[in-house]
Amino acid sequence: MKIRHRPLLCLALAALLPARATAQAIPADQPYGTARDLFNMTVDTPPDADTLARGQAIALQGAGDVQSCVTCHSVDGQGDGSGSFPRLTGQPAWYLDKQLDDYASDARPDDLMTPVAQSLSEDDRAAVSAYYASLAAPLRVARGQVSAQEIQKGAAIARAGSPDKGLPACTNCHGPDGTGNPPSVPYLAGQYANYMVLQLDRWKRGQRDNDFGGMMSAIASKMTAEDMRAISEYYERVANPLTTKDPQ
Q1: In the chain, which stretches have pLDDT less than 70?
Q2: InterPro entries this protein is in (predicted)?
């Protein structure tokens, strides 16, 4: 069963909307309707145990011809940091579900994920999204050596933006310390730098455009490769208390 949502205005994003944008309800049968692009969402009913069990089964064992998610994203949804397999642990279920729906509809084309998402039913996609959203996992050690100057540059842009380039602060939408603005805005804190750089580059090149109102495409177009790398390396090193547990 698809998770139902109700609209909640995202103030940071609304300030950038066209003047004609107005609040509107989301029809129950259109959880991803036009209003999705204008508002954050809140989940009316948390997933039940059966949904989580279904999601876990898909993640660990696959479904039909679809291989298990753990093959690429690991048991706890940690990914591997290579750039292709992001950390899914604790991302908002609504956000993960939307990405899978976008893969399935080719709104976010991807050679690997599109056929996977298309092979899953809507309920399967919702269930596996809810499962990964429920997890917490240790934060892996960041890859590579990065200078203090690069980290400082990334932190400055993340927190204050870059007025001379017209870049807004990442925290405006992604929350304090990049912990996300659930359920529609993903966390950045603890995500892999290589994955974030790859996505920013895709937005800049027009290879990805399934974000809110083209906002990320517009932002990425103003960023240099150095900006992307600095922000991404900074956020990979920020522990997200909402999705990270101490190693046992």
Answers
A1: 1-45, 246-248
A2: Cyt_c-like_dom, Cyt_c-like_dom_sf, Cytochrome_c_Oxidase_Subunit
Could you tell me if 155 and 232 lie in one domain? yes
pLDDT at 81: 83
**Of 208, 202, 196, nearest to 237 (Cα)?**
196
Q: What is the pLDDT of residue 246?
A: 56
Same domain, 53 and 39: no
Give me the pLDDT at residue 130, please.
92
- Is residue 75 located within the same domain as residue 95? yes
pLDDT at 176: 87
Q: What is the pLDDT of residue 33?
A: 42
